[in-house]
Amino acid sequence: MTMTSSFGHKGRLEDERMLKGAGRYVSDWNLPGQAYGYFLRSDRPHADIASFDASAALAMKGVIAVLTGDDVAEAGQKPMPAAAPMKGRGGVDQLVPPRYSLTRARVRYVGEPIALIIAESAALAQDAAEQIAIEWADLPAVITADASLAPGAPQLHESVPGNLVLDFVGGDQAGTEAAFQRAAKVVKLTSYHTRVVGNPMEPRAATGRYDASADVYELHATTQGAGPMRLQVGAMLGVPPEKIRIIAEEVGGGFGVRFNAYPEYGALLLAAKKLGRAVKWVSTRSEVFVSDEQARDIVHTGEMALDASGRILGMRFNYLSNVGAYLAFTGSFINTVNLVNVVSGVYDVAAVYTQAKLVLTNTVPTAAYRGAGRPVASYAMERLVDQAAHEIGMDPAEFRRRNLVRKEQFPYKIVTGFEYDCGDFEGVLEKAMKESDWSGFAARRAGSAKRGLLRGRGISTYIEASASGGFAPFDQAHITWEQDGTITLRTASHNHGQGHETTLAQVVSGVLGVPIERMRLRTSEPDFFMVANPTGGSRTLLGIGSAMYNAAHEIVKNGVALAADALESAAADIEFASGEYRIKGTDRSVSITALAQKYPGKLDLDYRDRPKVPSTYPNGCHICELEIEPETGDIEIASYVAVDDAGTIINHQIVEGQMQGGITQGAGHIFGEEAVYDRETGQLLTGTFMDYPMPRAVLVNNLRVMDHPVPTKTNPLGAKGVGEAGVTGSMPCVMNAVIDALRQAGVTHFDMPATPQRLWAAIRAAKEGKPRAFAVGQ
Ligand code: MCN
After folding, report:
1. Atom of ligand 1 at shortest distance to CA of 368?
2. What span, in angstroms and rounded, lies between the C-alpha atoms of 75 and 183?
3. 438/257 Cα distance (integer angstroms)
């Protein structure tokens, strides 16, 4: 069954509260008697702490305590957990290096928390941190994954020999080798997916409190959902999750980097317990740069075997992922499963083989960031596809069309065992070509050339798995009727910009016939224990939306007997439509709201123990045109067309906003967002917005977002995820356009970031007959 017109609401329920400044963010919470924390962080990438002296800090008036790794060890805290027990080549387990809430004796990246200073004010805690004297014994550091794997490289953890966390393989090795042997042509491309900092608008914040009477820890935190954070914090403290209460109302952005628990949380809760006072910490933007999880930082090589007609026979992918100094909770999942669950892209190819090495370095750990692996897979694939089309002299759209999985092939099982449920890849491609006036490009390019500009066109036909990585077995929902006729919807999936208050209410409203304005969404309620999956993997609508939809239908069903009772009729004679139960063929009716008020609690629904919904596969075709000014490297997107299949759409305005945001985020990454480490000193060189350009809304000119829905049957809404699709589609699309433009100037290879300086340098080098070879980060 698919949803139809009942979901036509415009605008978002949450907007008024947000726009009036009435939202309560984590740093807006203040608890009675709270103290303030400041984290002393490592200013070097790899060193032993030879001595640590906090006496001057402790002597300052108003300084309450200084906690270190020794206190953490003494309290019996456990190492932070990793999400999935991934196995590598030959069934070898991944190696998870121990990571504690405060490091002990050794630091392994700039920004690593060493000590928590607690004082009567945040400023005082920071002043006191400056009084702490540390003697260091520096160790050699390693910053890039390839250097870290080299013989003789500095070793980060004794338990991870050679710095190799996991050597992952997936797909059909023998079949792929055979395909390459019979190939008429082989195309190969190595490129670098640069490292980024998540940078949500709200910097990370947390307040820890310990309730001694109940032996319960309470954490107010910036979170994408209480479920996994409760598990992770519990594991860190060595207590069952029931002993952890995670509290959050508004969270100002997540983008994946608010999914995991962070070491600071364990230290704050320990401090709260020791002191018998709540301890509040609000990070600065500078701390965000060195202490929030970072993302990507992957070198990939793709190879493609082709027959003489331009059909893809097989593909090999090799990823080298820099996971930072420790393995983050989601660190291995995103660098393995999320690379192979769409391993053949939108193409009908069985012979695909992927290898991925996850490597430790002296940098901030990397984790999920919008797309969480799928944009990397899509980037590796779609750049390779473009390169292949270029090398065989075929139109890149035609090359794609020849190789697409066709409509009649669904459900389509890929070599790694995942199954694409449905789609119309050809229809999506055709629509995007038409909307972007594909055949008129030559004239536009000639027009740009007249103005001295290099015009490039890029295309990507992407696919991604939404609802991948649902770590909890359930998608839970709870619906409660309040006595005033309003309805409370509860879930553990946290809204931090995606508009859940509106869309989940729309789903329930569509079934119950109650206006969405009467619904209130509650997430992360500490006393309402829910294990449902958090916001991530673009699964909220599929998972929680489906749970809400099913729950609402059960409510309607449960109401029939009550309506029969209220209307003094037989249940078989009752029908339900638009919020009213009616005796068929009469005008005698009772509204569901009145019924809920008449029978308190009877129409509430606890939808908890049903299995989670499976993955589904949003896909699309993006086409972008841009112009480069060859004398300055100045670059501007001229037009961008996105045609996406997100299945049934619940709220077009929100979906368009999600696509705009995702596309701009992907384009921003291509154009310059990059976390750059100095290879000698291990310092983050791009630690402020002066050095790290965030994309602005105007980056993508003439953006048109269109849908081409193929409703899925894998969930009752027919919906596919949308939150990450924009990034997955835009990164290869924009880069393919950059390269298409640069080829006119004789540039044969180029990697992100496409900053004016780098573009200008590449054009100049080609002009001088010195085109650059591939090298990471150059
Ligand atoms: N939606 C819809 N119809 C569809 C699909 C989705 O109306 N066919 C609506 C949903 O109901 C929801 C929104 O679009 O209101 C996004 O839905 P979904 O794709 O289910 O994704 P999630 O809500 O689970 O959000 C997660 C996703 C991820 S993983 C990242 S990262 C991300 C993103 O969303 N981070 C964001 N978008 C973000 N947007 C903002 N503003 N801030 C972030 O941190």
Report:
1. 31
2. 61
3. 37
